[in-house]
């Protein structure tokens, strides 16, 4: 069939999850519907039906051709209406999954073979949108169930006085080469981060808490935090607040955490650019 379809849309996107997670989202009805929309289904076996329900009421349909879990899925694609630019089974879509060599997740490559270049140009913007949406759906499926809890555990570690407990927590949350970037220090690896927490507790005993929902965009998470208690002999804690941006490894551990200190008392660094006196 591919020889009859010389025009091609080719795109790829790296998604922050193992191939097994990505495969579930392209080969099960629940996963298929999560990124194509309610009512979209796929029977991921040769000869199985593929159906997409678009928000405007249009439908696309096709037939699964090849299945090689968790690496490759091909299916025909066309629109289920009389005036369709591509009829049902009138084009061929191939999705291939490969491990990213830099450990960032899975590379999803799309090839959509169509009968002419005009149809390829017509479909390219839609695939650009759909693969971007797919990356977000994969990230939410991979990180979403545990991410907020991991953020809260990260902040809780800064209040742990028992070093063995704190180290166990950090090893659960951090990759071996995690970089934490604070206004006062740049730290790499759980050992250095643990030592910095111990030092920070001696100078600024505090309870750090998340103060906003966690937002997620692909492998990046963002949230606000505040220091709510800094000990009996200090009144500075209520004045300290900021935002953190983190990058996540496919296994859910933090690869980087960058903190912006947005509200601080005199004497503590701030990330805010102040107007310089004239």
What does this entry look like structurally?
The longest helix has 41 residues, at 117-157. This protein has helices at 19-27, 29-36, 117-157, 163-173, 189-203, and strands spanning 7-15, 41-42, 49-53, 59-68, 72-79, 91-99, 106-114, 174-182, 185-188, 207-210, 215-217, 220-229, 241-248, 254-263. Helices cover 30% and strands 36% of the residues. Strand 3 and strand 4 (59-68) form a beta hairpin.
How does the SSE layout of this entry go?
Layout: E1 7-15, H1 19-27, H2 29-36, E2 41-42, E3 49-53, E4 59-68, E5 72-79, E6 91-99, E7 106-114, H3 117-157, H4 163-173, E8 174-182, E9 185-188, H5 189-203, E10 207-210, E11 215-217, E12 220-229, E13 241-248, E14 254-263
Parallel strand pairs: 8-14
Antiparallel strand pairs: 1-7, 2-3, 3-4, 4-5, 5-6, 6-7, 8-9, 10-12, 11-12, 12-13, 13-14
Helix pairs in contact: 1-2, 3-4, 4-5
Biggest sheet details: 7 strands, antiparallel
- Give the beta-strand count: 14
Categorize the overall geometry. elongated
- Order of the strands making up the biggest sheet: 1-7-6-5-4-3-2
How far apart are the termini? 71 Å
In angstroms, what is the radius of gyration? 24 Å
Strand content: 35-45%
Count, helices: 5
- The H/E string reads EHHEEEEEEHHEEHEEEEE
| Uncertain regions spanning at least 5 consecutive residues | none
Query: What structural class is derived from the secondary structure elements?
Result: alpha+beta
